[in-house]
Design a protein that fits this description.
There is one protein chain. The protein contains five helices and ten strands. Helix 1 (about 10-15) runs parallel beside helix 4 and helix 3 (about 55-70) packs across helix 5. It is about 40% helix and about 20% strand. The protein has helices at about 10-15, 35-45, 55-70, 125-145, 185-205, and strands at about 20, 75-80, 85, 90-95, 95-100, 115-120, 155-160, 160-170, 170-175, 180. By secondary structure, the protein is α+β, with helices and mostly antiparallel strands. The protein has a single domain (about 5-205), classed as tt1808, chain A (Alpha-Beta Complex), CATH 3.90.1570.30. The chain is globular and about 45 Å long. The longest helix has 23 residues, at about 185-205.
């Protein structure tokens, strides 16, 4: 069953015995946004067609934001676009974006995807988006279990304008109550930066 078959958090929680809570866990971590990025985003909003499809939202808004933050963490992580993720026949498919550990074998090798999964949804279909994203997070978690170490898996669902965040630890899924918007760019970047920094900390802890 591909990830897209899951239509809600409830459906995933029942099948995989996941407990759901809703509380804020994001600690906004300041990030300096370049003027170049601000100018490009303004150009996108003013001059381009950026929200006519999920692919357009990915390419014009979501990926540029993720890439801007990823640049500061690129020595340890790779940002993968539409990379196939397979755990078993129930948990398989193609997430929009995955932040994965940088493989020592180079950028052509997909290493452990235990960091971030992003699912873009057109308009406001966040219910289905989170069902799909949580299934992807479970697959990433199961692919990355190491002895005595089960890292947090972070997920994002966005329609470009609104960004929602979640965290999976063992069988507990926490959905951040506060959501972020592209109009509050500093706060959005601070939230994304928090997740990247948490991922970096987890990676460092595993390496020790």
């Amino acid at each position: 069953m591909p990830f897209s078959s899951y239509k809600s958090i409830s459906a995933v929680a029942k099948e995989f015995i996941i407990k759901y809570v809703k509380e804020d866990f994001i600690i906004e971590t300041e990030f300096t946004i370049s003027q170049t990025f601000r100018d490009e985003l303004e150009l996108t909003f003013n001059e381009s067609v950026f929200d006519n499809s999920e692919i357009a939202i990915c390419e014009n808004i979501i990926y540029p934001v993720l890439r801007e933050v990823w640049k500061q963490y690129r020595s340890k992580f790779l940002l993968w676009s539409h990379q196939t993720l397979v755990y078993d026949e129930k948990l398989c498919g193609v997430p929009d974006y995955i932040l994965a550990k940088r493989s020592p074998l180079g950028t052509v090798v997909f290493d452990k995807p235990y960091i971030v999964l992003v699912e873009a949804k057109k308009e406001s279909d966040f219910t289905e988006g989170w069902g799909q994203c949580l299934a992807e997070m479970i697959a990433a978690q199961r692919l990355n279990t190491e002895p005595d170490v089960i890292p947090n898996i972070f997920g994002i669902v966005s329609n470009g304008a609104i960004w929602q965040f979640g965290k999976l630890n063992s069988n507990l899924f926490t959905q951040n109550k506060t959501f972020y918007t592209i109009q509050e760019l500093e706060r959005l970047f601070a939230a994304v930066n928090y997740i990247f920094k948490e991922c970096e900390s987890q990676l460092n802890n595993i390496a020790e």
